[in-house]
Amino acid sequence: MAFKDTAGGKALIKNLWSDNPVFRQVLGICSTLAVTNLLKNTLLMCGGLVFTAGLSSLTISLLRNYIPKQVRMMVQVLIIAAYVIIVNIFIRARFPDIHKTIGPYVGLIITNCIIMGRAEAFASKNPAWPSLLDGIGAGLGYSLILVFIAIVREALGFGTLMGFALPFRDIWWYQWTIMVMPPGAFFMLALVAWFGNAYVLKKEGGAK
Amino acid sequence: MKRVKIVLFMVVIAALYGAGVTGLHLSTIGMVEQNKRFIEQKALVELFNLGDIQTLSKEEIGRIVETQIDQTETLTDPQTGRQVPLLKAYSNATRDQLVAYGFPFSGIGFWAEIKGYIAVDSRLKKTVGLKVIEQVETPGLGARIEEPFFVKPFIDGLDITPPAPGASYMYMGTAGNTPEPGTKEYGRTFDAITGATQTSLAMGRMLNATVAEFRRAVANREAGE
Fold first, then answer.
1. Can you tell me the distance from the alpha carbon of B64 to that of B70, in angstroms, rounded to the nearest whole number?
2. Contacts within 8 Å (CB) and 24+ apart, B166-173
3. d(C-alpha B47, C-alpha B67), whole Å
4. Is A78–B20 a contact, with Cβ atoms under 8 angstroms apart?
5. Quick check: ipTM above 0.85?
6. Which of B5, B11, B24 should we substitute to test contact with A (largest number of A Cβ atoms within 10 Å)?
């Protein structure tokens, strides 16, 4: 059986595009708006989310038969929080400058609806391997959109990518200050959601 | 019985994860402290313009702070009794030429506490630098207090000589409210950040209070001597 036909493969691929958490499910918007003015910060945030989403889905799936139904959400939050704290400690210790910028948002991964949503909708009902892939897929789907938004915002707002100046910047580049500020993120998110939804709906329509 | 099982489950899982996270936290405390110290050292070198932090190594930055900045003296504000740490920056390691004085400032910004240092020239007439080392203001708005455009007026030199009674040491300038060149307020004005009025106002408040406190403490020391 091809990977894309397995339960895990299907979950991963679906989360990347046709069920993308950001533009299809409109989840994780707070951090999408907050951290996308620099690609480096965005990549770290995305790494943290992929790590947390994957491992929390895996853990919740492994424990699903033992977690009492009455307290399942408390346990899910506890597991998610533990992984987020691990990410936070790691960034604080290894990347202190970046922690200064995205530190407050890393803590907010705990409340990111994508992780809780995948834990409740998928991991608590499915085996470990597909759950891990589902969590990673949700994280990667989120990352795909954030990275795209960050590339556009950093290039237009700062004239750089990963902090490096774009080629011949002095000749052609003019600063779009709005792209560095929160309204720039709103514009970009709206555009991505528009194009993404239009493309997915068109494809779904064509399939019918 | 079922309820006991649930409570037991919660206790066990919380203990397991709590222990794991605590262990990780404890194992990185040293590294975090080192990072914190390095951020502060970088800030001081930048504040007093003692070198280019982009090209200097971690060790060089540490050495400059150790040899060229005297952090041993503390002043006392006679009005509040508060201790004001006094930093003295020298142009070289022999400490024969004083470059500037520095002192910390802190206060509540729009979201949380802002901490940093302000540097003044050796004659105590104008500022020569400002460095924010801790803040969690809105990224892209209030957080811009760390950016060069906000810091530049402080490096260029804002007047910190005692103002007329009832007047402020510093003023926040906005697009429609900037003092005319030649007026006393003109040399004491820094630019507000568009879209971050509350952070700018908070900076104005805390810097005014800090400079006033520093002035009182210096006067107190001079009187004592």
1. 11
2. B168/B204, B168/B208, B169/B207, B169/B208, B169/B211, B169/B212, B170/B204, B170/B207, B170/B208, B170/B211, B171/B204, B172/B200, B172/B201, B172/B203, B172/B204
3. 16
4. no
5. no
6. B24
Inform me whether the C-beta atom of residue A164 falls under 8 Å from chain B C-beta atoms. no
Question: Contact B75/B83 with Cβ under 8 angstroms?
Answer: yes
Question: Within chain B, which residues score under 70 in pLDDT?
Answer: 139-140, 225
The residue type found at A177 is: T
How far apart (Å, rounded) are the C-alpha atoms in residues B151 and B149? 6
Q: pLDDT for B71-99, tens place per residue?
A: 999 999 999 999 999 999 999 899 989 99
pLDDT of A10 over the 80 cut: yes
Please report, for chain B, the start and end positions of each structural domain, with discontinuous segments joined by +: 68-224
Rg, chain B, Cα only:
22
A89 chain-B contacts, CB cut-off 8 A: 21, 24-25, 28
Q: Measured between alpha carbons, how far is B43 from B37 in angstroms, rounded to an integer? A: 10
